[in-house]
Description:
Layout: H1 4-21, E1 31-35, E2 41-45, E3 62-66, E4 71-72, H2 84-93, E5 99-103, H3 106-113, H4 127-135, E6 139-140, H5 149-159, E7 164-167, E8 171-176, H6 179-201, H7 211-215, H8 221-242
Parallel strand pairs: 6-7
Antiparallel strand pairs: 1-2, 1-5, 2-3, 3-4, 5-8, 7-8
Amino acid sequence: MADPIEELREKVALSCRILAMEGLVEGILGHVSARIPDSQEMWIRCRSQKEQGVRYTSVDAIRRVNFDGKGALGKEEYQAPNELPIHGEIYKKRPEVGCVIHAHPREALICGIADLELRPIFGAFNMPAMRMALEGVPVFPRSFLITRPELAAPMIDIMGDKRLCLMKGHGITVTGKSVEEATVRALNFDTLARTTLQVAQTGRKAPDIAPEDIAELPDIGSTFNDLWVWRYYVKKLQEEDRR
């Protein structure tokens, strides 16, 4: 039987590669982690002297460390990301979180810099993204690297119990109960930001969708929203890698 802890490690590597394939991270920047069940440890994407970029993340680059970054880094071959406190401090404060993603999608960056409000301007086109906008997207107004726990604390406070945060002039932080959920949530958030920016570029203000239309939109469940979408992107990644 497959080891579920190793399967979790493989999912973190897949998430990194999917996010890069879809343009949410570029080059060597951005990282994904997953809480290891029944422990105070996580799998997290690290770098080595052989770094080739997030798009080409190997399972070996996913290292097991505690929430403060101490652990097996392959005889120091690997280095934990400078912004590891984003991950570790969220896990310490929010036990329901099973995965943390920190990424730098360009359209979300521009929305933050330009103070474009992420509103529910579409409905059935992407219902999870619409609900993100409906619930409100917290914005962390600082642009520094979060390299210490005390720098992570104000971002986590602003994020509250929400599952994502736009970091102005920096990127995004997204959480989920699972790697699949967090990855798909990041992709949906990217759709919201892309659409918001494209509408703003028309020079027109889009109205919010009508409350009666929102009332007609069903909750189609995590299998439809997360698992099936995750499988699609895994398959897409496999096809891309064969080319």
